[in-house]
Amino acid sequence: MDKIDKSRFGWVGPDPEHQEGISRPSITYWRDAMNRLVKNRVALVCLCIIVLLILGCAILPAVSPFSGREQHLTEGNASFFTPCTDTRYEGQGHVHIFGTDRLGRDMWTRLFDGGRVSLMIAFSAVFVNLIIGIIYGGISGYYGGAVDNIMMRIVEIVNGIPYLIVVVLLMMVLPQGIFTMVVAYATVGWTGMARLVRGQALALKNQEFVVAAEAMGAKPSRIIARHLLPNALSVIIINVTLAVPSAIFTEAFLSYIGLGVPVPHSSWGILAQDGSQVFQVYPEKLWIPAIAISITMLSFNLLGDGLRDAFDPRLRR
Question: Quick check: pTM over 0.90?
Answer without folding.
Answer: no
